[in-house]
Amino acid sequence: MFKIGDKIVYPMHGAGIIEDIEVKEILGETMPYYVLKFPVGNMKIMVPVNNCSDLGIRDIVAGEILDKALNVLKESKNDLDSNWNRRYRENLEKMKSGDILDLAEVVKDLYIMDREKGLSTGEKKMLNNAKQILISELALARDLNNQTAEDIVKDCLKE
């Protein structure tokens, strides 16, 4: 169980901080909820404490794993499925997994593909979303502002 002040990652939403734990009655059921504040986008959401593992919520990564994720951004593109629909679904599954290395791979592959031949509207949106999730975790893990974290990600992608 997490506590107030913990920095966590909610896959598909990004990194945030547990601001409060509230007991709420919703649809006739009373249970505790984490109140999560996401610095990127200044968004707040409530997540049932009991659903955290099902949703893939985890602690933010630091140190070596974060460095590995940044290094993934510097690698060459993987061989991707030429069918955009299958490729989109595969990338979506990687993002839903909550694994930062998978997320970095999605950012890198879509970024390179966008530079080489462009992306569909859906994949552009996915790239922007994946990049924001990665930036939010980097910012919280290294105690950076969002612009600095974004600049680090952009620098890694340009290498």
SSE class: alpha+beta
- Give the beta-strand count: 5
Query: In this structure, how is the largest beta sheet organized?
Result: 5 strands, antiparallel
| Shape label | globular
CATH topology of the largest domain: Methane Monooxygenase Hydroxylase, Chain G, domain 1
Q: Which strands sit side by side, in order, in the main sheet?
A: 4-3-2-1-5
Global mean pLDDT: 91
Number of helices: 6
Radius of gyration, in Å, reads 17 Å
CATH C-level class of the largest domain is: Mainly Alpha
Query: Would you identify the CATH architecture of the largest domain?
Result: Up-down Bundle
Number of domains: 2
List segments where confidence is low: pLDDT < 50 over at least 5 consecutive residues.
none
| Cα-to-Cα separation, first versus last residue | 39 Å
Structural overview:
The protein is α+β, with helices and mostly antiparallel strands and 159 residues long. The protein has two domains: 7-59, Thrombin, subunit H, CATH 2.40.10; 63-158, Methane Monooxygenase Hydroxylase, Chain G, domain 1 (Up-down Bundle), CATH 1.20.58. Helices cover 51% and strands 22% of the residues. It has six helices and five strands. The protein has helices at 52-55, 63-72, 84-97, 100-117, 121-142, 146-158; strands at residues 7-10, 14-26, 29-38, 43-48, 58-59. A five-stranded antiparallel β-sheet has the order 4-3-2-1-5. Strand 1 and strand 2 form a beta hairpin. Helix 4 (100-117) packs across helix 5 (121-142) and helix 5 (121-142) crosses helix 6. The mean pLDDT is 91.
